[in-house]
Amino acid sequence: MQLINTDLFLLIESSRLKFTVVDEQIAAYFLEGNPPLKQSSIAHKINVSTASITRFCQKIGFENYKEFIFAYRNTLEELTIDKNNVTHNLKFRYKELINNIDENLDIQDIQTVCEYIYRHKIIHVYGLGLSAIAGADFKFRFTRIGKFVEVVQDHNSIEMVSSLLNEDNLVICLSLRARNQYVLDSLRQLQQQGTSIIMITSNQSPEIRKLANVTLLTSSLKNTNEVGQISVQIPLLIIIDMIYSQYISMYRENISKWIHTEHAYLQGHNM
């Protein structure tokens, strides 16, 4: 009975070199996670003999079908518990993300960011890799309400664009960790040129804060396992949601006027 605690599916896979065609047929039934039926029922279902199932069980180290099916039931139960735990842990982590952001953010900072956005018609969003996806979301939202948003998403483009901007421009930098030296050097250059900078990051370093006019802190992904479970851009997207909602609330009347004017212009242009 020591095999009960072994990964049963791995045990089946590792025994395949000695399987016959019938054994493969039996293995497929169990590897697919099908119900643990009586031996005779499974034999009838997959069109093999009960003796073949017994031999299959012995080939992978069990004395008989009874011992094997006991281990199989336990394996299925453990898999179900694992799946439930993953779902529960993911829900908990999402709640934790929201709570951390709520603790770190000051509503006044969000409002200040909205004021910067309102004062600038053209906005450049810096974001590398997955941060660029969050940048695209920002662009989609604010383009619809009258802003020209350019997402800059590679080192060379960031360096080139930074050399052209001045005190009339606004840059929003999306970087969860804010550790890329190419981007940080470009922000330092922008700062010297008088460009307004908004930083959205989880990096709480005072040095990072010094690079921006306003820094909005989001939550970080605490370990590498979370990177596969939670999309890296989600902590950034949550902040973008907050900025957009606050902006709509603060400038609803102006947005309505712009949409009305734009609609009238398009109708006249199409006549």
From TrEMBL:
One of its GO terms (biological process) is carbohydrate derivative metabolic process. GO terms for molecular function: carbohydrate derivative binding; DNA binding; DNA-binding transcription factor activity. It comes from the Bacteria. The keyword Transcription regulation applies. Residues 113-253 form the SIS domain. This is RpiR family transcriptional regulator. CDD domains: SIS_RpiR (cd05013). InterPro entries: Homeodomain-like_sf, HTH_RpiR, RpiR-like, RpiR-like_SIS, SIS_dom, SIS_dom_sf, WH-like_DNA-bd_sf. Residues 6-79 form the HTH rpiR-type domain. Keywords: DNA-binding, Transcription, Transcription regulation.
